[in-house]
């Protein structure tokens, strides 16, 4: 009987903290998309449908109108656990969820690393992303040897994972 009561107590407290408030999520789902962004005819790859509205808003302020998905990787990360994604042009991006704000935004640390073998830091900063929101980081040439190939745009989308 004591074992059953202990198990019920454990189940009852699993989703709460000391004051009976909801437990903070311990994991976050992040999707990283590498996108070829070009000026010219307005066209969005159908595979970018989940962020098409975000891209349309983004395009209002920039010269790019043509977006093609190059790669997509999703991660279910614990806070302070990094994930790294290889990008075109022998580059990579590393993303680390840092903390969650009371309004559901997460703060992420982002590093874009340059071409191999040097792999120098091109960007090293923190961003906040709303739940379900997407941020864009761009400006590097898609192929450093071919400027006409377009610009590399990295889209980072945040969705909540399970505790």
Compute the number of helices. Answer: 2
Tell me, briefly, the overall form.
globular
β-strand amount: over 45%
Instruction: For the largest sheet, list the strands in their spatial order.
Output: 2-3-1-9-8
Q: Uncertain regions: pLDDT < 50 for 5+ in a row?
A: 1-20
**How many strand segments?**
9
- Describe the sheet with the most strands: 5 strands, mixed
Give the CA-CA distance, first to last residue: 29 Å
Percent helix range: 10-25%
What is the domain tally?
Answer: 1
Q: Write down the secondary-structure element order.
A: HEEHEEEEEEE
Query: Can you give the mean pLDDT?
Result: 81
Q: How big is the Rg?
A: 20 Å
Structural class: mainly beta
Describe the structure.
The chain is mainly β and 163 residues long. It has one domain. The protein has helices spanning 2-13, 52-59; strands at 27-38, 43-44, 66-78, 83-87, 91-100, 106-113, 121-129, 134-143, 146-160. Strand 5 (91-100) and strand 6 (106-113) form a beta hairpin. The protein starts with a helix and ends with a strand.
Give a brief outline of the structure:
This protein is 12% helix and 52% strand. By secondary structure, it is mainly beta.
Give a quick set of tags describing it.
9 strands; mainly beta; 12% helix; 52% strand; 163 residues
How is the secondary structure organized here?
Layout: H1 2-13, E1 27-38, E2 43-44, H2 52-59, E3 66-78, E4 83-87, E5 91-100, E6 106-113, E7 121-129, E8 134-143, E9 146-160
Parallel strand pairs: 2-3
Antiparallel strand pairs: 1-3, 1-9, 4-5, 5-6, 6-7, 8-9
């Amino acid at each position: 009987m004591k074992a059953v009561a202990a198990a019920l107590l454990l189940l009852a407290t699993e989703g709460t903290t000391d004051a009976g408030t909801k437990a903070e999520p311990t994991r976050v789902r992040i999707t990283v998309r590498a996108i070829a962004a070009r000026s010219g005819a307005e066209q969005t790859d159908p595979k970018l449908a989940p962020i098409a509205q975000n891209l349309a808003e983004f395009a209002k302020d920039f010269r790019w109108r043509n977006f093609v998905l190059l790669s997509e990787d999703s991660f279910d990360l614990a806070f302070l656990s990094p994930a790294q994604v290889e990008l075109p042009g022998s580059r990579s991006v590393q993303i680390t969820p840092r903390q969650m704000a009371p309004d559901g935004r997460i703060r992420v640390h982002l590093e874009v690393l340059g071409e191999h073998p040097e792999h120098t830091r091109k960007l090293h900063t923190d961003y906040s992303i709303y739940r379900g929101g997407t941020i864009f980081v761009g400006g590097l040439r898609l192929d450093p040897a071919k400027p006409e190939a377009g610009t590399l745009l990295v889209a980072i989308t945040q969705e909540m994972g399970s505790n």
